Amino acid sequence: MNITYYLIGLLTGISVTAFFTGKELYKYYTKYTIQQKQLNRILKLNDNIKKYKNLKSTKTPNFNAG
Q1: How far apart are CA 35 and CA 29, in angstroms?
Q2: How wide is the angle at C-alpha 65 spanned by C-alphas 61 and 66, nearest 5°?
């Protein structure tokens, strides 16, 4: 009977450990994907700003009064 309790305890311990490990890995995964999406949005916005500034500078001539 002792070996049965040992095996049940071992299986329970492994299951609990796997659950908490999986929970932490999922938390890390979601945090990483959200940060990656935010970074992609910022990079896209930065590219749009650069394009807009480039178009604005090419359309308006720069006259120096000097």
Answers
A1: 10
A2: 130
State the alpha helices, DSSP H only, in the chain. Answer: 2-59
- Which pair of tokens denotes residue 30? 């979601």
Cut 0.85: pTM above it: no
**CA 66/CA 49 separation, integer angstroms:** 30
pLDDT tier at 7 (50, 70, 90 boundaries)?
very high
Q: How far is CA 49 from CA 8, 10, 14, 20, 45, in A?
A: 61, 58, 52, 44, 6
The pLDDT, as a whole number, for residue 60 is 60
Record the tokens describing residue 27, joined without a space. Answer: 């938390």
